[in-house]
Amino acid sequence: xxxxxxxxxxxxxxxxxVITQGLIAISLFNYVLARDMQKxxxxxxxxxxxxxxxxxxxxxxxxxxxxxxxxxxxxxxATQTLAGLLKAAGEEGAVEIKNNTNVKLxxxxxxxxxxxxxxxxxGGLFSGIIAKMIPGLSVGQGFLFLTARPGELIIPKxxxxxxxxxxxxxxxxxxxxxxxxxxxxx
Length: 186
Known about the structure:
Elements: H1 14-37, E1 45-49, H2 59-67, E2 73-77, H3 82-100, E3 103-107, H4 112-122, H5 127-133, E4 141-146, E5 157-160, H6 168-172
Parallel strand pairs: 1-2
Antiparallel strand pairs: 3-4, 4-5
Helix pairs in contact: 2-3, 3-4, 4-5
């Protein structure tokens, strides 16, 4: 029914922040499983994990990526470095992250190792073009990759992300205008 933002900032303890992130993810996964067992409507829940490399090594991340979508829990992983995320996830976790993330937004990258990981993930006809274009992207530009099934042609879309023009009132009420509609109104 809205947006809940839980800042698990590192503050005094990085370990505590990572444990908190893990507890939130596991709790939401248990909630959607229980909801399914009770035959309740699977309203979508989007769990956004910023700095995802901090928890990528936990088995529950792989489980959520593989299983939670069918129960209405969608995991959004944000990281500054895909190569670092995949390394932190380990071999099995990296495979699952690659296979179970169907939408990827890639912004400007200069680091050669990082670029190599992304280009390998794109593969196919556009990998050479993407490799040349990624370092030259302007602020806010990125490539959006949408995939559905293994072997499908991936056609990247160049996108421009605009800076938010919300005023201070809107920033304090980020869900304003996104309230759920009654069931009888389309």
